[in-house]
Structures are given as structure tokens and as C-alpha cells.
Amino acid sequence: KQLTAYRSRIAGMKKQNDALVAQLDSTNAAYAALKLREQTIADSLNNAMDANANLQGQNTGLRETVEKGQQLVITSSTVQAIRIARNGKERKTRRAKHTDQLNTCITLAKNRISERGETTLYAKWIGPNGRSVDGPEANIAVVGGERSNFNGSARIDYSGEAMKVCITANRALNTPVELAPGIYTIAVMTDSYLVGTVAVELK
């Protein structure tokens, strides 16, 4: 009788154990499903973050492209070297050592997306050695994003249409330096960027 009772208890315990194992398996399956869902959500979030970062990069690139497209551009230009005679009259020259100023005329391209309104164009001489040729002492402004000396400027009212602009670029005459023969470059800039360059050869 005792053996039968023990066997009955063991059978009951086995059933209870089987039920607990089944419940554990169900819990494990639910946990695995939950982990899978969690991983899926994490992957979706990472993908969304990557897509957002990519979109931000595209927006930055597009904004930079638009900003660049809004900049003024030179389509044609002429430069004339000038010597200032003792009587104050201007004389054309091709000699570097006689050059006191460079009269630069440029044509700005038509640009429908560029900002309209008044802006200042600055001209800076760059010598054959790559160094700037000093302008008049009073000519100090933010040029090309940096505060520096410039040789000449012109105030324009840009409407988006092509327009011609002439700038008289002088060199400092209070500390005259004899200019060497070679190719001189006029860099035309706004207060924040380079519009373009124009070159002239002086003998």
C-alpha cells in the first residue's frame, strides 16, 4: 500500500514537473519572441537613424550646392595697367615698374537664384611671387571672409541679370616698391567668398 502510495505521489510529481517544464518552455518561447521583436525594433531604429543621417548629409550637400549656386561668377574681364603722371593724369602702360593701378572691368553672369540687392566687390592684387601687393592704408575690410587690406572696391546693386562692373585697384604709394615683371592676378571677392580672378602680364 505504501509503495502504491509512493508511486501515485511520484506520478503526480511527474505530471506537475511536466506541467512546469511545459510552462517554462512556453515562457522561453515567449522570451525568445520578445527578444526577436526587440532586435527587430532596434534594427528598424538603427535603419531609421542611418536614413536620417543620410538625409541630413544630403540636405547639407544640397544646401552647400545651393549656396555655391547663389554665388556671383565672372564671365568675361579686361585689365588695363595705369601709370599716374605727375599732373595726376592716367597713362596706359605695360611696364610693371611704372604701374600704379590696375583698372579691372568684369561681367557678372546672370544668376536667378543669387541674392538681390547691394553688395561690395573687392579687388586684391596678387604678385607673380604669390604675395599680395599692398593697397592704400585706409583700405581695410572683411574680404573673402577675412579682415585684410584690399586694393579697390565697387558697390553694386545686383538684380540677378548680367552686369558689367569696373574696379580701380590701386597700390600703396606711400611706401612704393618697384614691381617685378610677371603675371599679376586680380582676385575679385565679396566679403565672404571669391568671385573670380583676372590676370594681366606686366613687362
Could you explain how this protein is built, in words?
The protein contains 1 helix and 10 strands, in the order αββββββββββ. With 203 residues, it is α+β, with helices and mostly antiparallel strands. A hairpin with a 4-residue loop joins strand 9 (182-189) and strand 10. It is rod-shaped, with a radius of gyration of 39 Å. The mean pLDDT is 83.
Keywords:
single chain; alpha+beta; four-stranded antiparallel β-sheet; 203 residues; 33% helix; rod-shaped
Number of DSSP helical runs: 1
Sketch the topology as an H/E string, one letter per element. Answer: HEEEEEEEEEE
- The counted number of beta strands is 10
Which spans of ≥5 residues are poorly predicted at pLDDT below 50?
none
Class by SSE composition: alpha+beta
Radius of gyration: 39 Å
Write the layout of secondary structure elements.
Elements: H1 2-69, E1 74-84, E2 90-92, E3 101-108, E4 117-126, E5 140-143, E6 146-149, E7 152-158, E8 163-170, E9 182-189, E10 194-202
Antiparallel strand pairs: 1-2, 1-3, 3-8, 4-7, 4-9, 5-6, 9-10
Briefly characterize the structure:
The chain is an alpha+beta fold and 203 residues long. It has one helix at 2-69, and strands at residues 74-84, 90-92, 101-108, 117-126, 140-143, 146-149, 152-158, 163-170, 182-189, 194-202.
